[in-house]
Amino acid sequence: MANALTARVALQDTKHVLRDAEYLDGLVEKSDSAWSRSLVRLDVATALLQQGAPDVEHAMSLGQQAITLAATLPISSVRQRSRDLYERATPWRNLPAVREYGEQLRVWGSLPRSAEAG
Fold first, then answer.
1. What is the DSSP letter of 112?
2. Cα(27)–Cα(71) distance, integer angstroms
3. 24-43 residues labelled b (16+ CB within 10 A) or e (exposed)
4. Which of 43, 46, 53 is nearest to 21 (CA)?
5. Are 101 and 95 in contact (CB under 8 A)?
6. Tens digits of residue pLDDT in 17-29
């Protein structure tokens, strides 16, 4: 179902992303995969920016959580979706939450990628 979230994000099917993420939350949080937890957070964050009344603060908070979860062993899909989230937040770059997320993303992106997988 986590992969379905990603597909629904691409289709901008925000209502279903948020509904399904709520259903998956308990399962994802119990997952041994920090990557899965990170990617689901990024999908939800993107959906929060796509909805009619964007929740920028919550989206950036989820983005920061996603980066933190993936910090020790990043994979390319987490890096890419993290950058994509920041690009989507362009209209709100003057907000502190977006600036803080951008700074965390910049620092994380400057770390060595020797441990990167996938």
1. -
2. 21
3. beeebeeeeebbbbbbbbbb
4. 43
5. no
6. 888 888 777 777 7
Angle at 62 between CA 114 and CA 42, to 5 degrees: 60
**Amino acid of residue 105:** L
CA distance 118 to 37: 16
pTM of the model: 0.84
Q: What are phi and psi of 13, to 5 degrees?
A: -90, 65
* Per-residue H/E/C for 2-23: HHHHHHHHHCCCHHHHHHHHHH
Name the token pair of 79. Answer: 């890096």
Q: How many CB atoms lie within 10 A of CB 112?
A: 6
Q: Which residue has the tokens 């909805």?
A: 51
**Residue 101 identity:** Y
Any idea what the Cα angle at residue 20 is, between residues 18 and 39, rounded to 5°? 75
